[in-house]
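Reading is simple: each integer encodes one residue's backbone shape. An example follows:

___
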Amino acid sequence: MTVTASARRKARHYAMQALYQWQMAGASLNAIEAEFRTDNDMSKTDVDYFHDLFHGVAKNLDEVEGAFVPHLDRKVDDLDPVSRALLRMSTYELKNRIDVPYKVVINEAVALAKKFGPTDAFKYINGILDKTAADLRPAEVKADKQ
């Protein structure tokens, strides 16, 4: 399958939901992933990207949170579960998927926050990710602002 923007979008959508479920239920990553692959039509989804995001966040949780926590005005556990999942996933992308422009990562997170998050959560997420991107990808952010 050729990787398309919509296939990546679906991968992020499912990864965010899988992370949400993992945070709330604490089931094993493999069990959650198997459930998602069984219960959803993954034919138009970049399943490798879904797997990378979902497992990458869980395996690198301390490192991922360490990148965005300094920009929070509250504890990670005080974030609503959707925002927490999105910040974790997007920060993982910013750190580990430099093939994806930072603006794409932020725009995708904002779109998911508008769809699934509480009212105005997308504004908060946008602000945190802007600061996180400037830390993690300073050259790319600086070049973009010139």
